């Protein structure tokens, strides 16, 4: 899958510029090696570790007709699968950038600042739209919304359906791919710390919930968060096309606060009350049970600190917007008297002479004196 950028000058092979321009082709070749490995018996067992979801467990359902159902649990082999789908995320990132965002950038002629923000919002909008839709379908199929007690009932939730496990593998792969993308996209040095912070937060929370078997709670919270973030980045894309359209930010601000409150409520309800009153208490690594008070306090502290950090960033963002809006209004107020004064001068005449050639009353008075 070749994705080439049009350049007039070819950089030296294996130089930084060569790798950046052709990183999608290079990554595609690496992914193709794993796919070709499935064709040969010698390498198929190794290639399967990277491509297919591991740790399959078949369970027969109780009833008149026993039907086998496949479930999955997590393990160390998931690192190989996550690595492969990280490569897939890099390829998809390059496709969206080359065939969608770059074409829009060439038409709109954005400034350098808007260009980088537009690319960021475009990529994240596509990811949030796909992830929120996929996650919502899993919630509906597993009846997690209609039965909130299932978020903690029957913990530890070591067995997952295929869709849920594959969802978490893809989530980890996507946020891991964001690290090399900082190099491939030539991210500015001042923007790197900000992006590293939110990449780190995503990886810690998703991987932590996946390892601690809190996948049901994590799925609900991820869908809530992704829907709100999708609205923000879509609003920013609309704002870049027309700066007068800012109503989306107002709706996002309301939903952002509600999402933070709902996240805290569900987390406290599930971890603080549901797991705390569960009969299956104790620490058992082999059984995947982490229902001890230290783990529960750590999970709640991590969630609460993250929500507090996000609210602090949100408040600073809103204050900055209000400050910029106030400065804009003050500039407009200063410009209005100047324009009205210039119109009055034109009506009275410039330098005592009217536009029709006759002297103004002020000029006549000066002549008589």
Automatic annotation (TrEMBL):
Residue spans crossing the bilayer: 83-101, 196-212, 218-239, 251-273, 293-315
Task: Tell me which domain of life the UniProt entry assigns to the organism this sequence originates from.
Answer: Eukaryota
The answer, when asked if Transmembrane is one of the entry's keywords, is: yes
Which processes are annotated in GO (biological process)? protein transport
Family matches, as Pfam families: TRAM_LAG1_CLN8
Q: Where is this region: Disordered?
A: 330-369
Give every TLC domain span.
116-325
An example of a Gene Ontology cellular component annotation for this protein is: endoplasmic reticulum membrane
Spans of biased composition, class Basic residues? Answer: 331-344
Cell compartment(s), UniProt: Endoplasmic reticulum membrane
List, alphabetically, the InterPro entries matched. Answer: TLC-dom, Translocation_assoc_membrane
The membrane topology of this protein is: Multi-pass membrane protein
Q: Does this UniProt record's set of keywords contain Protease?
A: no
Per UniProt, which keywords does this protein have?
A: Endoplasmic reticulum, Membrane, Protein transport, Translocation, Transmembrane, Transmembrane helix, Transport
The protein's predominant localisation is: endoplasmic reticulum
Amino acid composition bias (Low complexity), ranges on this chain: 348-357
Show the PANTHER family listed in the entry.
TRANSLOCATING CHAIN-ASSOCIATED MEMBRANE PROTEIN 1, TRANSLOCATION ASSOCIATED MEMBRANE PROTEIN
Q: Which family does it belong to?
A: Belongs to the TRAM family.
Q: Tell me what this protein is called.
A: Translocating chain-associated membrane protein
Q: Which organism is it from?
A: Pagothenia borchgrevinki (Bald rockcod)
């Amino acid at each position: 899958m070749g994705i080439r950028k049009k350049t007039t000058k070819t950089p030296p092979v294996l130089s930084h510029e060569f790798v950046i321009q052709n990183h999608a082709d290079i990554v595609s070749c690496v992914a193709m090696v794993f796919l070709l490995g499935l064709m040969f018996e010698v390498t198929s067992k190794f290639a399967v570790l990277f491509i297919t979801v591991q740790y399959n467990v078949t369970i027969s359902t109780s009833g008149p007709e026993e039907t086998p159902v496949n479930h999955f649990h997590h393990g160390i082999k998931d690192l190989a699968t996550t690595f492969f789908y990280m490569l897939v995320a890099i390829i998809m990132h390059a496709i969206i950038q080359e065939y969608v965002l770059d074409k829009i950038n060439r038409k709109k002629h954005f400034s350098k600042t808007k260009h980088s923000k537009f690319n960021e919002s475009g990529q994240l909008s596509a990811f949030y739209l796909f992830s929120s839709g996929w996650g919502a379908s899993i919630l509906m199929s597993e009846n997690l919304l209609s039965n909130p007690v299932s978020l903690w009932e029957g913990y530890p939730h070591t067995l997952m359906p295929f869709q849920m496990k594959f969802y978490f593998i893809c989530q980890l792969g996507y946020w891991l791919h964001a690290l090399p993308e900082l190099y491939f996209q030539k991210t500015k040095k001042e923007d790197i710390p900000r992006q590293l912070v939110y990449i780190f937060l995503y990886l810690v929370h998703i991987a932590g919930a996946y390892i601690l078997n809190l996948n049901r709670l994590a799925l609900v919270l991820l869908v809530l968060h992704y829907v709100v973030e999708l609205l923000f980045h879509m609003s920013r894309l609309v704002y870049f096309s027309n700066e007068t359209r800012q109503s989306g930010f107002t709706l996002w601000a309301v939903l952002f606060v509600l999402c933070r409150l709902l996240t805290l409520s569900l987390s406290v309800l599930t971890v603080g009350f549901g797991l705390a009153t569960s009969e299956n208490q104790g620490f058992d690594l082999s059984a995947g049970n982490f229902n001890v008070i230290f783990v529960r306090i750590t999970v709640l502290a991590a969630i609460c600190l993250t929500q507090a950090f996000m609210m602090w960033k949100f408040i600073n963002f809103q204050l900055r917007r209000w400050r910029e809006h106030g400065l804009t209004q003050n500039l407009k107020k200063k410009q209005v008297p100047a324009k009205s004064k210039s119109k009055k001068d034109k009506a009275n005449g410039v330098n005592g002479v009217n536009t029709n050639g006759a002297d103004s009353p002020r000029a006549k008075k000066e002549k008589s004196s």
